[in-house]
Amino acid sequence: MNSRQGTDFDAIVVGAGFAGLALIHYLREAGVSVRVFDRASDIGGTWTWNRYPGAATDSESYYYCLTFSKELLQEWRWSKRYAGWQETHAYMHFVADRCDMWPHIQLETEVTGAEYLADRGFWRVSTGDGKTYTSKYFISGMGMISEPVIPKVKGMDRFRGPLFHSARWPDGLDYAGKRVGIIGAGATTVQMVPVMAQTAGSVTVFHRTPNFILPAMQRPMTPEWESEIKANYDAIVAKCRNHVFGMAFDSPVGRNAVDTPPEERRRIFEEHWNGSFRWVFETFDDLLSSPEANRMASEFIVEKMRERISDPAVADVLVPKPGEYPLFAKRPPLDHGYLEAYSRDNVHLVDIADREPIEEITETGIRTTLNHHEFDIIVLATGFRAYTGALEALAIRGKSGTTLAQKWKQTSDSIMGVCAADFPNLFMVTGPQAPFANLPTSIEQNAIWIADCIRKMEAEGHDVFEPRLDAERVWSAHVADIHAQTLMAEGDKVHSWMMGANIEQHPPRVLIYFGGANVYYDRLRQSADAGFPELEFRRLAG
Ligand code: NAP
Q: How far, in Å, CA of 483 to CA of 529, rounded?
């Protein structure tokens, strides 16, 4: 028995990805018992589900990792700039092994619902095997980009071959020599195509909206680079903590594109064209805030994209048109040879926006208004219901009996993405209205705040914390205010998942705090230092 309420565990966490591992570490430090459930047969979260060919991190791996142990940072060796899913997955096993986390993890156990029992002050959590568990704290570590979006295309159940979402890649699927159709052309497809094209018979991408595609420029981790990183890890961790997107970038740089003469601006753009999102942050400080600077950056990227696409007709489909939408209103993909892949004879592009929209899926392929394309395999790389999706997919019932899905029908209000009014003793890691940033950085900052809150609860003998509705209103209004001032607000024009605008028949909404991840991390710290004024603490009667 745990806690004064007599629960099975002090904390139940859903999800054994980066969030689950971070929570095990920080909650153990806080002295509470924790059980992590995951429906998958392995830990890894995103890195277990997204096993599509070419899946790799878009953050550079040496800071896409957990930082709570200096020893671990020194011991683990990354083989390249951006690790593939297998290597990231192996890293997560290394963390779980070295930190003896396995006793806290229960795999192949799907959490199907969770209900707050107001009179008892704890959560009752149901699992797919018909069991229930109780805990004082219920914590979502389910990830902010984890709930797949399955498009509504007529005839989808008719297709005779494998048809699946990219985040549900069938183990051991052999696509060598096969004809593969991919619906969607976001970050996932950009990673997938160049790898699949090497062995597939053909790869055909059904494309709707162009992306600003930045080169990844993969490179191996040399001994010299590794030594430099390992000698500077404290500074690297601090950089992430203090960066607007939680990345170890050298920015702000103290100059604006709009104030820089054209030749000098071009020289700086060219000099920094070294791969990763660094380019956006390490060239000028105004690319995401000034429409004029954003246009300059967009034009430069478009020029670079066109240089790499051999067929101008293909380029016309892949490349954003002038003024179509601002850079970063849609999350730009990083590519490892995607644009060049269209020069291969076995890679094809179908423009479903302007030329031949999809009509239906048939037993043998995809019918558009102009053609019938025959396939052996169809991949739905159609993205995710971001931020709220995983939390809405389960019936998580708060104090009034309302679910999170009901609460978020029109909005996605929260307190800093970590708590929600009407849901006592519930924490979320990177919930709605948290920033979009290098995820391990945000995850650790959230886990620290949660652990600090639990420490206070336990030290002061509280049974329950109630997130305050007024605090939620203040945070949500602040997030909306900032959102309205950013160029990201234009993402609704181009179905950006960053506003939930990728969900059919679902109004776009304010899902992300764009005031800077560093500012947000400061807010979390200030909240903890001030004794969590957003929450009301109390003991149960009796
Ligand atoms: P996505 O960026 O949302 O792209 C989904 C694609 O599917 C878009 O091209 C979209 O077209 C298309 N689509 C959706 N519904 C459709 C429909 N009904 N008919 C036709 N096309 C449809 O999804 P994603 O590529 O999976 O990436 C999502 C996010 O996951 C990324 O932005 C990134 O944050 C994360 N991710 C990260 C990594 C990494 O860091 N290594 C890798 C992959 C993904 P429209 O654009 O027209 O809507």
A: 27
| Contact between 269 and 275 (Cβ < 8 Å) | no
Which of 88, 145, 214 to probe ligand 1 with, by most ligand atoms within 8 A of CB?
A: 145
Give me the amino acid identity at 536. Answer: E
Distance CA 89, CA 108 (A): 17
| pLDDT, position 536 | 98
Rounded Cα–Cα distance for residues 11 and 447 (Å): 13
CA nearest neighbour of 154 among 363, 352, 9: 363
Separation between Cα atoms, residue 129 and residue 132, nearest integer Å: 9
The long-range contacts involving 83-88, CB below 8 angstroms and separated by at least 24 positions, are: 83/56, 83/57, 84/54, 84/55, 84/56, 85/47, 85/50, 85/51, 85/55, 85/56, 87/61, 88/44, 88/47, 88/56, 88/57, 88/61, 88/64
Q: Residues with Cβ within 6 A of ligand 1?
A: 56-58, 145, 151, 183-189, 191, 208-209, 331, 352, 381-384, 495, 497, 502
Residue 451 has pLDDT above 70, yes or no: yes
Question: Distance, CA 148 to ligand 1 centroid (Å)?
Answer: 10
- Name the burial class of residue 370, with classes exposed (0-12), middle (13-18) and buried (19+) by CB atoms within 10 angstroms of its CB: exposed
Rounded CA separation 428/431 (Å) = 5
| This model's pTM is above 0.70 | yes
pLDDT confidence band for 95 (50 / 70 / 90): very high
- Hey, what's the torsion of the CAs at 290, 292, 293, 294, to 10 degrees? 80
CA of 213 to the centre of ligand 1 (A): 13
Q: Which atom of ligand 1 is nearest to the CA of 187?
A: 25
Per-residue pLDDT of 471-495, as tens digits, reads 999 999 999 999 999 998 999 889 9
Could you give the percent of the chain with pLDDT greater than 70?
Answer: 100
17 — phi, psi (to 5°)? -95, -150
Q: What is the DSSP letter of 103?
A: G
Nearest CA to ligand 1 atom 23: 383
Does residue 497 register a pLDDT over 90? yes
Predicted confidence at residue 341, as pLDDT, reads 98
3-state secondary structure 155-166: CHHHCCCCEEEH
The answer to whether 279 and 289 are in contact (CB under 8 A) is: no
Per-chain mean pLDDT for the chain? 97
Q: How confident is the model at residue 1, as a pLDDT?
A: 62
